[in-house]
Write a structure and sequence with these properties.
The complex is a heterodimer. Chain A is an alpha+beta fold. Chain A is built from five helices and six strands; from the N terminus they run αβααβββαββα. The chains are: A alpha+beta, B alpha/beta.
């Protein structure tokens, strides 16, 4: 890995990385991938999110679904762990709670394949500052 | 294969279910079926929307229509109007309480603006073990800006202007703290991150470190630049293995990218971070005790002054800030002090992260702007009290804080208001209690914790708290008299006024605040030898109500000490001399035939 030597370098790097992520998140093209984030803080892991993540990685691979599974921190819905966020290409992400391997299977088969919503959706109840940026930053 | 054009999300949380959302769900499904729309409209139950006050909730996607207080009989109209004709059912829309206008779209509702994630902005968004994702989310940009475009004085001024106050509990203005540390000369200055989160039920700092470790590193570099320190130390409890692991990964990645180390981003400024482990002593969250622990000494506090800014780690000027405080820092430089200061109340700016726990539906981590009321936090975001019980009190500030009651529900939460109400912000634990909690027992629980965690250096805390605990124990056993109550109050005052550090100075708060707000419960224990909530074992008795008992034998079979006698289909009786008051009989009885008296 090369070192970042100045603020300009850092910004350049960020632009590259951002477009990579934006492509991943917003692409409408058929090759756009599904992005799954598994909440892997202590609360999630204690409730079995590790098993769910492994299951998702293995099963998506087996079923030939092009998806990116990443881990992330606590989404705040500790009462409903394990929680995962599934973003289909070009769509608003959906958060699912109480995800065990059985429900994960259902999410793959029903939601990811057929865009049919599955039980256990958790409504997102906070604002992110990113959203605020669009509206508020003059 | 069906491709749905519309989704109807029906809330399946406890609150909505209690108002028949399950019947509503069935009705909607049936109606969709009858209209032949089963291939176009999908009806799904979801988790709690948190808006239980106006339940049951139905949300229609893709147009984001938000229906409130929907009854089972409304199903037909919703399907006929909304699904078939594409018209919203206006009478079921949410009405904004301030301007009396109907709000059709959930995005326009004030409720969903109640949480703003600043410190938690990346938690649940990025992969904490991948620095590239942090960089893509504006990571290290604030550090780059400060290092290459601002002088330390300018950067400190920005921090002062933002109005950020320490999130560890005390609420000291962060910018002022940095300014003091910057003005003291020293050979080697230090920046310390306090990650010794010890309050029972609090997990804000852990979640930040687990979800977004780089933000803390970035803030520490900025802090180092401002005060002229080149070394940073993170004091974290060894009980947080996942947070430690992710921090280590983050430090390695930052070093590889040259974001920690020498000549960061070509600015000529050097800074590096090391981790130090705490052994889980509560008192080590106090900054002087924390510093002694890092030095290899006993984790005991010393008298202030000298403050760490004058003589801290190894006698050198040291600035100590808490994890959540640091997590706010990069955003302040990215979005400006003015933006940050626009959120919150006059004297408390920004947001606060709370760990919601106890008898509440949505246990979890929330971040709300300062100035929000307890009512909004508990009943809207928290989804109300579990099992429809009645709210009694909320404990904030952990063992150093106090209990707030329904008369405080509409007080805006900020540092100063909580202090005035006899509690404190603390680090952000918020434990909700219902009518089944005995407030004397709650005070005793916290005192038990304090006695265990007192370092023993000063007598008021070491001996005084032990005596306080004994008095409370006497009360919960029904052996206390009025004089004991006076002693309890007097002793609390002495401990508060004469202890060496914050631990002792605040340890009587749970006692004082419960005495102020729930004196009737203390008096019931003392005068009538009764525990109103039915918690204190020495003051309660389990008895079988003859009219309700059908002789099913469930209680007798589950009694661990076999103290319940009775034949099948005959009245059962409890032998009080053997009963250990475990409550198993009450729990198992399906006929409400066991009561606490």
């Amino acid at each position: 890995m090369t070192k970042i030597k100045s603020l300009a370098d850092l910004k350049k790097m960020k632009d590259n990385l951002q477009s990579k992520i934006a492509l991943r998140e917003k692409s409408d093209s058929p090759e756009g991938r599904v992005i799954i984030k598994v909440a892997m803080a202590t609360c999630g892991i204690a409730s079995g999110s590790k098993e769910v993540m492994e299951y998702l990685v293995d099963e998506l691979d087996k079923r030939n679904i092009d998806a990116i599974v990443t881990q992330t921190g606590c989404m705040g819905y500790c009462y409903a762990e394990p929680t995962i966020e599934v973003a289909l290409p070009g769509q608003e992400p959906v958060v699912y709670g109480y995800v065990d391997t059985k429900r994960a299977d259902e999410i793959i088969e029903k939601y990811i394949r057929n865009q049919e919503l599955v039980e256990g959706i958790i409504p997102m109840n906070y604002q992110t500052i990113e959203k605020d940026k669009e509206g508020g930053k003059a | 294969m069906a491709k749905f054009k519309m989704h109807m999300l029906v809330c399946g949380g406890t609150g909505c279910r209690a108002s028949a959302s399950d019947v509503l769900y069935e009705n909607l499904k049936k109606e969709v079926q009858e209209q032949g729309l089963q291939d176009d409209v999908q009806v799904v139950t979801t988790g709690c929307f948190g808006f239980c006050e106006k339940g049951p909730i139905v949300k229609v996607i893709p147009d984001n229509t938000f229906y409130v207080s929907v009854e089972p009989k409304d199903a037909q109209e919703i399907v006929a109007e909304h699904a078939i004709k594409g018209r919203r059912v206006e009478r079921l829309l949410y009405v904004d309480p301030t301007n009396k206008k109907q709000i059709p779209d959930s995005k326009g509702m004030g409720f969903y603006k109640k949480q703003i994630r600043i410190a938690l902005r990346n938690c649940g968004l990025i992969d904490p073990e991948n620095i590239d994702e942090y960089l893509a989310a504006d990571g290290y940009e604030a550090m780059g800006k400060v290092l290459s475009e601002m002088t330390p004085e300018e950067a400190i001024q920005e921090m002062i202007d933002s109005g950020l106050r320490g999130r560890g509990g005390g609420g000291f203005p962060t910018g002022i703290k940095w300014q003091i540390a910057s003005k003291v000369a020293g050979e080697q200055k230090y920046v310390v991150c306090n990650a010794d989160e010890g309050d029972p039920g609090a997990f804000m700092d852990r979640s930040i470190l687990e979800g977004d470790p780089h933000t803390v590193l970035e803030a520490m570099v900025i802090n180092g630049y401002c005060i002229g320190a080149t070394k940073g130390l993170i004091y974290i409890r060894a009980e947080y293995p996942l947070a430690i692991n992710r921090l280590k990964i983050a430090i390695d990645q930052a070093r590889e990218y040259g974001l920690l180390g020498t000549d960061i981003l070509g600015s000529g400024f050097d800074f590096d971070v090391e981790i130090r482990y705490g052994a889980g002593a509560f008192v080590c969250g106090e900054e002087t005790a924390l510093i002694h622990s890092m030095e290899g000494e006993r984790g005991e506090p010393t008298f202030k002054p000298p403050f760490p800014a004058q003589s801290g780690y190894k006698g050198m000027p040291t600035n100590v800030n808490n994890v959540e405080t640091f997590a706010n820092v990069p955003v302040i430089y990215n979005k400006g002090a003015k933006w940050f200061a626009s959120i919150g109340t006059e004297k408390s700016k920004g947001t606060k992260v709370f760990a919601l726990a106890g008898k509440i539906n949505n246990v979890g981590l929330i971040e709300v702007p300062m100035g929000i009321t307890l009512r909004e936090v508990i009943f809207e975001i928290g989804g109300g009290i579990k099992d429809g019980r009645k709210f009694k009190a909320v404990q904030t500030g952990g063992p150093s804080g106090g209990c707030l009651t329904d008369k405080h529900l509409d007080t805006p939460i900020d540092f100063d208001n909580l202090l005035a109400a006899g509690s404190m912000m603390g680090s952000g634990g918020m434990i909700v209690m219902d009518e089944d909690d005995c407030m004397v027992a709650v005070a005793k629980f916290y005192l038990d914790f304090t006695v265990e965690e007192s370092c023993g250096k000063c007598s008021p805390c070491r001996i005084g708290n032990k005596r306080l605990y004994e008095l409370l124990d006497k009360i919960t056993k029904g052996q206390a008299d009025k004089e004991d109550l006076d002693n309890l109050r007097n002793l609390s005052g002495v401990i508060r006024d004469t202890s060496l550090c914050g631990l002792g100075q605040t340890s009587p708060n749970p006692v004082l605040s419960t005495m102020d707000n729930f004196m009737e419960e203390y008096l019931a224990h003392v005068d009538d030898h009764r525990c109103l909530a039915g918690v204190c074992k020495d003051l309660i008795r389990y008895e079988i109500i003859p009219e309700n008992c059908v002789g099913c034998t469930a209680c007798a079979r589950n009694c661990p000490v076999n103290c319940i006698a009775g034949e099948r289909k005959q009245l059962h009786t409890i032998d009080q001399s053997l009963c250990i008051k475990c409550g198993a009989c009450l729990e198992k009885c399906k006929f409400n035939a066991v009561e606490i008296v």
